[in-house]
């Protein structure tokens, strides 16, 4: 009798979890239907468990859960069922690697894909760089809006008296051109265009006279200077930004450039003064303490060119 019990013990040690479940169910005098109703499992699942048909069953984690439910109803322990299960399935499972990281795949030793972590890091870096670029552009715009642009005065034109020009063999036709102030729209914040050079008209007797050679030249007449009218004072109040140029009787530039709104300038020198304003309605002028009416000198583009007094 002792030999039979020992033999049965050896066979139970070699038995799979399915045989242990069947033996415990029969010992409890339960049918498969009664057992399935108690633990809420289908008959097909219980049949697969008693036959150790792990190909029909779900993942190992679910199989272990089934064993836990069965141990609560049948006279068999969960530890005994899991030990028998591990003896059947453990030799088929290759040993897992310690840690394997593949590009774009999941880190087998971690819990999140490496590609996802890398993508999130790149997005965060891009957002930080965008914020820094936006902040820098705003600072540069604020600096540019608060800066004062200083325009250097244009170099005075130098006239060379006695310039020699070749004498043509035929009479040159007289050139006619419209006034540059009427043809060109002047921006108040930009310097006025340079005046066109004066044309040279030859007398008919000189044009018809024979020319000794190509080297024959005639001197040009020097430009007539404005008559001096004594010392004077011009006061300018700028209610709006305007390009301004003022020259005295000797042609010396006393003021030239873009003057900002709110500025006040006082100019003294030899009268008469040649004055050009790019935005005449935005400037108030007094000459020797008397206000000056510029309405008759203001063009349709708000520029004004006149002489005081």
From TrEMBL:
Pfam families: HTH_25 (PF13413), RodZ_C (PF13464). It comes from the Bacteria. This is Helix-turn-helix domain-containing protein. SUPFAM superfamilies: lambda repressor-like DNA-binding domains. Residues 145-232 are annotated as: Disordered. Keywords: Membrane, Transmembrane, Transmembrane helix. InterPro entries: Bact_Cytoskel_RodZ, Cro/C1-type_HTH, Lambda_DNA-bd_dom_sf, RodZ-like_C. GO terms for molecular function: DNA binding. The lineage of its organism: Bacteria, Pseudomonadati, Pseudomonadota, Gammaproteobacteria, Nevskiales. Residues 235-307 form the Cytoskeleton protein RodZ-like C-terminal domain. It comes from Stagnimonas aquatica. The chain crosses the membrane at residues 114-135. Residues 157-188, 196-210 have a biased composition (Low complexity).
């Amino acid at each position: 009798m002792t030999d039979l019990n020992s033999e049965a013990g050896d066979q139970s040690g070699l038995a799979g979890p399915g045989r242990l479940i069947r033996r415990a169910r029969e010992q409890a005098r339960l049918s498969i239907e009664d057992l399935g109703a108690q633990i809420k499992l289908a008959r097909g699942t219980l049949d697969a468990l008693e036959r150790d048909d792990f190909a029909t069953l779900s993942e190992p984690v679910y199989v272990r859960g089934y064993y836990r439910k069965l141990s609560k109803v049948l006279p068999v322990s969960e530890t005994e069922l899991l030990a028998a299960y591990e003896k059947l399935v453990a030799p088929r499972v290759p040993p897992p690697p310690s840690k394997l990281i593949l590009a774009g795949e999941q880190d087998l030793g971690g819990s999140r894909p490496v590609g996802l972590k890398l993508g999130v890091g790149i997005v965060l870096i891009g957002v930080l760089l965008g914020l820094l670029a936006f902040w820098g552009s705003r600072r540069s715009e604020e600096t540019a809006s608060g800066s004062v642009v200083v325009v250097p005065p244009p170099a005075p034109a130098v006239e060379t008296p006695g310039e020699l020009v070749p004498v043509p063999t035929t009479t040159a036709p007289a050139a006619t051109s419209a006034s540059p102030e009427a043809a060109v729209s002047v921006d108040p914040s930009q310097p006025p265009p340079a005046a066109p050079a004066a044309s040279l008209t030859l007398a008919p007797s000189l044009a018809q006279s024979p020319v000794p050679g190509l080297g024959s030249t005639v001197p040009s007449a020097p430009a007539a200077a404005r008559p001096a009218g004594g010392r004077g004072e011009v006061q300018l109040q700028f209610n709006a930004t305007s390009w301004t140029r003022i020259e005295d009787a000797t042609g010396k530039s006393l003021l030239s450039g873009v003057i900002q709104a709110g500025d006040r300038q006082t100019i003294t020198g030899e009268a008469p003064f040649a004055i050009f304003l790019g935005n005449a309605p935005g400037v108030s002028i007094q000459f020797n303490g008397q206000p000056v009416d510029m309405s008759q000198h203001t063009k349709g583009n708000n520029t004004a060119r006149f002489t005081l007094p």
